[in-house]
Amino acid sequence: MREKEKERKEEISKMDVVTQMQRQLIQYTSSLFQEGFLDDQFNQLQQLQDESNPEFVVEVVTLFFEDAERLLNELSKSLQVEQESIDFRKVDAQVHQLKGSSSSIGAQRVQRVCIAFRNFCEQQNVEGCLKSLQEIKQEYSLVKTKLETLFKMEKQLFAARGSISR
Amino acid sequence: MAGGEVLRQNLPEKLEESPSGANELHVLAVDDSLVDRKVIERLLKISSCKVTVVESGTRALQYLGLDGDKKSSIGFDSVKVNLIMTDYSMPGMTGYDLLKKIKESSVFREIPVVIMSSENILTRIDRCLEEGAEDFLLKPVKLSDVRRLKDFIMKGEVKEGEKRCCKRSRSEDCSPSPMTHPCDSSLLSSLSSSSVLSPLSPSTLSSKKSRL
Fold first, then answer.
1. Which residues on A lie below 8 Å from B35 (Cβ)?
2. d(CA B166, CA B176)
3. CA distance to partner chain B, nearest, from residue A162 (Å)
4. pTM (two decimals)
5. Complex ipTM, two decimals?
6. In chain B, what residues touch A101 (CB-CB under 8 Å)?
7. What's the pLDDT tens digit per position in A96-154?
8. 3-state DSSP assignment of residue B27
9. What's the CA angle centered on B136, arms B85 and B108, to 5 degrees?
10. Which end of chain A is flanked by fewer CB atoms within 10 Å, N or C?
11. What is the dihedral of CA A135, A138, A140, A145, to 10 degrees?
């Protein structure tokens, strides 16, 4: 009798933990939307995830991270040259790519800085471009950390759920 | 040309029979962005389409056997594509260039081509529509866009079958005649019986323009 009671209590506390984690995940996700890190496109991606493709969002976001890091490197190189020899068309093309992929995953703040960046390219405003590059690096770093945290929380929740016996 | 003539006269490719027997749309998607390729592929698969994704206009032409290279036309006969979705801004061959090449081809010109772009530029949209693009989608492309497109293409396939028996040039005048034509009747019954709503009908075109 005691054994069963103990087991039951353990199950209940595991469920409590899971409920807690679920609540935290929802709150965290909400905050990312509220603070503008993510927009509706992220929701759209989540709709595309199901049992047949359970890692879809992580996979796409990972591709975005790789893409963004490559582009940020290229942008740094493009802007490191002598100011007079900056190829604004090339810089603009690179920012356009980054804007596209950030928009595709819903990374709203990164996308917004890209838009400002492109304006500076059009104006051939070197200072503006350098400032934008700094800003993009910051925003990218932020959203990357946030998304990695989000994915970690999801993984932990999934594991906790899984450990509850039927 | 306004959006009126949306239903192409002769859709050459019938819908492919998938193993389950259901008619499946085969879509060729073209995009230079790795992220976007992954997303569009998923959007199409989740909408029950067969998908081929390539990274450039050149590759798309190779796949279709249109690049003039004798070697790549080996698989030519078996290539059946019901829809081409292409990004506009791509290095080398743009989506517009690809659109032109397809419309110049006697074999492939009837395949609907949809342009995708993150940039909402009216002159660009007009140019593409004038060159024969079926539709112009703003990125990021949503599931609702794909569903709407798929419905439209499927209806085009049905209407094509009806045209053969009704012998009319404007298919909107043709009332559906169930069970009397060669098209899959289950396909027909899954579609609404109202007139075809083309993506470029006046209401949708103005709503597209109102987004500008």
1. 60, 63-64, 67, 100-101, 104-105
2. 9
3. 27
4. 0.78
5. 0.91
6. 33-36
7. 999 999 999 999 999 999 999 999 999 999 999 999 999 999 999 999 999 999 999 99
8. strand
9. 45
10. C
11. -160
